[in-house]
């Protein structure tokens, strides 16, 4: 069952709440590969959001490999399941390569990560 809650008075934009909600449900196993998700218009009406807000979340989920659109058939959770761990691993590897190229040590790399996490 596809259920997402969007808090309209949150400091997190609605499209981001929707995006993060879908990812959380994929990670927890609530949404499995091949699960059909509501149309943009249906979900927008259900959540009281503008269709463009839902469309943006779906586009970003598709770009991240979490959702795949199959034309007239609709949108589905991607068959690859949760690609976010793979993307995070690649981002971390790229970061370390950049730090090494800049000649910085591991402690400096961790300092920058901690600062980014705190911001």
Helix and strand layout, with pairings?
Layout (H helix, E strand, L loop, with lengths): L13 H15 L7 E2 L2 H8 L3 H13 L3 E3 L5 E3 L6 H18 L4 H13 L1
Antiparallel strand pairs: 1-3, 2-3
How does this model look, in words?
This protein has helices spanning about 15-30, 40-45, 50-65, 85-100, 105-119; strands spanning about 35, 65-70, 75. The protein has about 120 residues and is mainly alpha-helical. It has a 3-stranded antiparallel β-sheet. Strand 2 and strand 3 (about 75) form a beta hairpin. The chain starts with 13 loop residues before the first helix and ends with a helix. The relative contact order is 0.12. The model has no long low-confidence stretch (mean pLDDT about 90). Keywords: DNA-binding, Transcription, Transcription regulation. It holds the Pfam family GntR.
């Amino acid at each position: 069952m596809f259920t997402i809650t969007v808090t309209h008075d949150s400091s997190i934009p609605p499209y981001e709440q929707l995006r993060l909600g879908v990812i959380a449900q994929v990670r927890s196993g609530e949404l499995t590969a091949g699960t059909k998700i509501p149309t943009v218009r249906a979900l927008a009406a259900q959540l009281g959001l503008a269709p463009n807000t839902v469309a943006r979340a779906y586009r970003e989920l598709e770009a991240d490999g979490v959702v795949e659109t199959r034309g007239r058939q609709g949108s589905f959770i991607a068959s690859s399941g949760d690609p976010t761990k793979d993307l995070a691993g690649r981002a971390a590897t790229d970061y370390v390569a950049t730090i090494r190229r800049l000649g910085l040590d591991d402690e400096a790399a961790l300092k920058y990560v901690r600062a980014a996490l705190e911001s």
